[in-house]
Amino acid sequence: MALMKLSCGDISLNKTMGLTVRVFNRVLDMLLLGASYSRIIHASCRISAGGARSKALNTCGSHLLVIFTVYSSTMSSSIIYRVARTASQDVHNLLSAFYLLLPCLVNPVIHRARTKEIRQHLATLFQRKQ
């Protein structure tokens, strides 16, 4: 009988705690990633060879874009799911699809667009059309 009462009771505290833990986890994760990448960027800027420095900073930029894509889709999906009671099931389904598909689709595009050879090829394609 106690389980029935627990399952039928008010779960707003559980939702609030779940959202709080998720946000705290993401913020802590972002702080640690930020500290890590700031050290990497600082070390990259001290590299004397310009090509090596550029390559290191380019790689960091790609990683940060992918991380931003994953975290923004995760957090928006989580917040909408937990907070927006008035949102329809279609909105929840759409956000779930974005959460699952967007990082997977954008990750290769970001890494390919950041590759020098592909960037040069795309630039020549766009110059031909103009």
UniProtKB/TrEMBL annotation:
<feature type="transmembrane region" description="Helical">
    <location>
        <begin position="93"/>
        <end position="110"/>
    </location>
</feature>
<dbReference type="GO" id="GO:0005886">
    <property type="term" value="C:plasma membrane"/>
</dbReference>
<keyword id="KW-0675">Receptor</keyword>
<dbReference type="GO" id="GO:0004930">
    <property type="term" value="F:G protein-coupled receptor activity"/>
</dbReference>
<dbReference type="GO" id="GO:0004984">
    <property type="term" value="F:olfactory receptor activity"/>
</dbReference>
<keyword id="KW-0716">Sensory transduction</keyword>
<keyword id="KW-0807">Transducer</keyword>
<keyword id="KW-0812">Transmembrane</keyword>
<keyword id="KW-0297">G-protein coupled receptor</keyword>
<dbReference type="InterPro" id="IPR000725">
    <property type="entry name" value="Olfact_rcpt"/>
</dbReference>
<keyword id="KW-0472">Membrane</keyword>
<feature type="transmembrane region" description="Helical">
    <location>
        <begin position="63"/>
        <end position="81"/>
    </location>
</feature>
<protein>
    <submittedName>
        <fullName>Olfactory receptor 52K1</fullName>
    </submittedName>
</protein>
<dbReference type="Pfam" id="PF13853">
    <property type="entry name" value="7tm_4"/>
</dbReference>
<dbReference type="InterPro" id="IPR050402">
    <property type="entry name" value="OR51/52/56-like"/>
</dbReference>
<keyword id="KW-1133">Transmembrane helix</keyword>
<keyword id="KW-0552">Olfaction</keyword>
